[in-house]
Amino acid sequence: MAIASPPTPSSSSCPRVWMITGASRGIGARIAEAALAQGDAVIATSRNAASVEQRLGAHDALLPLALNVTDEAQAQAAVQRALAHFGRIDVLVNNAGYGLLGAVEEATADEVLRLYDTNVFGLLHVTRAVLPAMRAQRAGHVVNISSLGGVQSAAGFGLYCSTKFAVEGITEALHAELAPLGIHATVVEPGYFRTEFLDSASLAVSPRVLDDYAQSAGAVREAARRINLNQPGDPVRLAQAVMQLVASPTPPLRLPLGTDTLQTIADKHAFVARETAQWRAVAASTDFPVQEAALQTA
User: Fold this and answer.
1) Which of 142, 127, 25, 128 minimizes the C-alpha distance to 91?
2) Which of 38, 118, 220, 276 lies in the 20 to 30 Å Cα band around 130?
3) Which residues contact 175 (CB under 8 A, 6 or more apart)?
4) Helix/strand/coil (H/E/C) assignment for every residue in the chain
């Protein structure tokens, strides 16, 4: 059953209009709640629009929409309905996604394709649907939710992390492409926050288990059960950080959130610096010799 649209607020009555995917729970719901609390308007999408209203309640400034981000036509239709309702979209938060737990070899091709359909292609579908309106406005902010796993991959989460590496690369390009048009792009990198991410609704687990990976991916499977609902990050504070991000006149390309992500970044940079130093001579040896290069260009 379709949900009746609330009265349309005038464009000037809401400081910002947000479109948030995966907004019925977890980080998406927290960001939607924070935006509504500060008087903004929110287009909140989920596969089931009723679940959005159940979580967020009824608000004049809330438009719940059903959206399966893997369906490009649905993404286009949702954006058109949002624009017809509110007149503009100022902030897009690409939050819809899920995790896949298991060693790279353990996952099936179908599991990998479904993961990429949501986490990467779904993000692209929604972004490409929203950007024409932002370009016409010469204003807007695309916020892509990545992960600590977009900074550094790990055993057991390699395929999930690979989707977040893709999100990082896409956002870097968007940042460069959209800046001249007055549009911002930021990738947010949360660490472990106390949401439903490690529950079965948000985390798929490869049923195939290979004993050879017991000490790597297998150990991570067990750790995920212990960590669930004991994560150190506060999702309410995360949502407030996103409010600060969007309010900034000079938002960053990357926003790491959580002390665990900050430590991961420091460790990754130190590892890359050490390894690069060890192999610098080999890396540099692959250029043409200076004299030969000069002759090649003469």
Assistant:
1) 142
2) 38
3) 184, 185, 186, 253
4) CCCCCCCCCCCCCCCCEEEECCCCCHHHHHHHHHHHHCCCEEEEEECCHHHHHHHHCCCCCEEEEECCCCCHHHHHHHHHHHHHHHCCCCEEEECCCCEEECCCCCCCHHHHHHHHHHHHHHHHHHHHHHHHHHHHHCCEEEEEECCHHHCCCCCCCHHHHHHHHHHHHHHHHHHHHHHHHCEEEEEEEECCECCCCCCCCCEEECCCCCHHHCCCHHHHHHHHHHHCCCCCECHHHHHHHHHHHHHCCCCCCEEEECHHHHHHHHHHHHHHHHHHHHCHHHHHCCCCCHHHHHHHHC
Report residue 89: phi and psi, to 5°.
Answer: -130, 120
The per-residue pLDDT for range 8-29, each reduced to its tens digit, is 444 446 799 999 999 998 899 9
Single out the residue of 193, 149, 191 nearest to residue 167, CA to CA.
Answer: 149
Residues 6+ apart with CB under 8 A from 190: 27, 145, 146, 147, 148, 233, 238, 257, 258, 261
Q: What is the pLDDT of residues 35-54, one digit of tens each?
A: 999 999 999 999 999 998 88
The pair of structure tokens assigned to 31 is 């960001």
Residue 156's identity, in one-letter code, is G
Q: For position 134, what pLDDT does the model report?
A: 98
Q: What is the residue whose two structure tokens read 């369906």?
A: 71
Residue 6 burial by CB count (10 A; 0-12/13-18/19+): exposed, middle or buried?
middle
Q: Locate 119 and state its tokens.
A: 């986490």
Cα–Cα nearest to 95, from 48, 56, 145: 145
pTM of the model: 0.88
Of 64, 58, 57, 54, nearest in space to 85 by CA: 64
**Alpha carbon distance 204, 221 (integer Å):** 11
Q: Which residues are catalytic?
A: 146, 160, 164
